[in-house]
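pasting input
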Amino acid sequence: MLETPKANGQDFTGSVRLIHAVGMHARPAVKLTKLAKKFKAHISIRAADAAEWINAKSVAKVMALRAARDSIIQIKASGEDAEAAVAALVDLVATDFPDNG
Amino acid sequence: MRADLARLAYRGRTASIGFAHGPFVRVDAAPSGQHASGTPEDEKRALRGALESAGRQIAFLANAAGGEAAQILEFQVALLDDDDFLDPVSAAIAAGVAADAAWSSALDDQIADYNSASDEYLQARSSDLADLRDRVLRTLRGGAAEALKIPGGAVVFAEDLPPSRFLEIDWSNGGGVALLRGSPTSHVALLARSRGIPMVVQLGAVAERAQAALLDGERATLELDPSAQQIDVFERRRDAHRKSRAAAHAILRRPAASWGGEKIKLLINIQRVDDLDHADAQYADGVGLMRTEFLLGEPTGLPDEEAQYLAYDAVLRWAGKRPVTIRTFDAGGDKPVPGFTEDGEANPFLGVRGLRLCLARPEIFAVQLRALARAATRRNLKVMFPMVTAPDELEAARKAFADVVGKLQAERVPAVLPELGIMVEVPAAALTIERFKAEFFSIGSNDLAQYVTACDRTNGALGKLSDPLQPAVLELIGRTVDYGRRAGISVSLCGEMAGDPRCIPALLSCGLRELSVNPSALAQVKQAIDRLSRGDARD
C-alpha cells in the first residue's frame, strides 16, 4: 500500500503500511527520524488515524507510537521541501527500512 | 569449614551459550555520588555538558565496536539529539529542579512506560534507556569517565547490564555475564552471542560475595566458590563443548549431507523463536518442526492472534526461502494447559489431546489458524496437525482452516491456505496411511514408539522394550516411507530417533531422506551420515 504525496492546502500527505516484522521499534524509529531530520519541512506522523500527530523528527515520540506491524502510517509535511520529505519517508517505510538508507 | 558447606549453585535462563571460569565480580549499575546543584543557568549548563560527554562516550564505544553494537547504540545517540525528549528536562530545570533530578525523573517515566509494555521487545528496550540515564548521571555526579575495572576472564555479575557497559569491558580474555534480571532478547544478550561470551539471565537471587565462579551457558547455571570436584565436572563439560563445536564447524560448513548418492535434508526442531539463535541453526535446510505450545505458557492466558502471528512470521522470515513446518497446538497428554486441556482424564495420553483437543475447542483453534493463514502469505510455510487418528479429523481441520482463510479474505486481510500435513504418531494412522489426503507426512517417532510398544519412554524399568529400534516401530516407519515414495508425498521424521546417531543407519535404510533434529544435534547427525556415506562408497 503506497500513495504518492498529495497536496492538501499547504500540507503534503502520504500513507503507507508498516511491514516491518516487529513494528515501529528502535531501529526503524532511528532510521525514520534520521531521514526526517534531513528535510527542513515540519513533518508529523501518526498511526492508524490516531487523534494526535507527532513530530517525525523525535525518536522518543516515534517509538511511543507503538505502531504495530501492518498498521497504516500517515505522514504529513509542510514547508519548502515537504513534497520530497513525504515521498522519501513513504519510500523508507514501504521498503522496510533498508540498511543502506 | 568452607569445603563442607553446600555449594552455591543457581539456575537461570540461557542468553548466550559458552563457559566461563574466573573471578566473580559484581558491577553496580546505579551511579553513586552527589551532584552539587546551582542556579537554573548552572544546571542547564551542567546538563548540556553531561549530554555532550555522554554522546561522545557512546559514539566512541559505537565506533570501536562497529556493526551490530553501533546500531544498538544509535538509539541512545538519537535520544540525545531529540529536542522533544529533552525539552521537559529543560523545563523542569528552568522551574528550579536540579539537573540530575530532572534528568532521572524524565528517564524514569519513560523506563516505567516501556516496562509496562506487553511486548518483551519493548520491555527489553528499557535497559537501553537505563543505560543512558546512568551514563549521564555519572557525568553529572562527577564519576565522569570512570571505566569499569574488570579483571580478564571474570564472571561479571549485575542486576542488569546495559549494552554500553558491556562494551566497556575488555572481553579479549574471555569471561561471562550472570544477571539477576535481564532477558535473552535484550540488546546486551545479542552482543554477548555475537562475541561468544556466555550469558545467563534471570538468576533471581544470588549470594552477593564470592571469590570465584563457574558459569555454564549451556545448562544456564552459576556456581560460586566451587569445590575441586565441581571444577572438574565443569572443565570436562567445557572441554566436550569445545571439541564438539570444533567438529561441528568442520562438518556443518560442508554442503548438504548425502547418502547412497541421494541428498539427505537436515532440518531443525524448535520449541520457541529464540531457538533459532543457536549457532548451528543457520546450517539447517529449514525448520522441520516448530512447536507452538510455548505460546500457551504465557501468564496472561491464551495468546492472541497478533502475538502468534509475530512468532510465526519471525521464524518464516528467518528461514527466507527454506521451508518451515509449524505444528498446531499439541496440548494435553503430558502438556496440560489451564483453560484449554480437559481436567481429570483417567489416561491423558489416550485422551483429548493434539488435534482432538483443537477440534473440540474450535474458538481457540480458529485464532491459531488465522495467525497461520496470515503468516502463510510468505509462501514458505507448511502446517501439520498432531495426533491424527482418522482421515475425518484431517478433513475437519482442513475445512476449519479453509473457513478461516475465506473469512480473512472477506475482511481483505491477506491470507493463504498453506500445505497441510499430518504427524504420523498414532499407529492407526501409520497402518492406514494411504487413506489420508495429506500433502506431507512427518513421523513423530517418540509417540509412535510409545503407542506401538505400549511403553512409557521415560520409564527406565522398561529398558530395551521401549527402544525405538524395535522391529514393529521400524516396520511402521518403513510402510509410511514406502507409501510416500509411491504416492509422491514427502515424508520426514522429527522424533528423538532422528538426532540419535545410533538410529541413523536404520532410518536411512527405511528410505527416509528428511530428518528434523534439535539444533544442538545437527552437527553429530551430519557427521554420522557423513561416516556412513564414506563407509558406503564401495564403487
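fyi The first strand of chain B starts at residue 8 and ends at 11.
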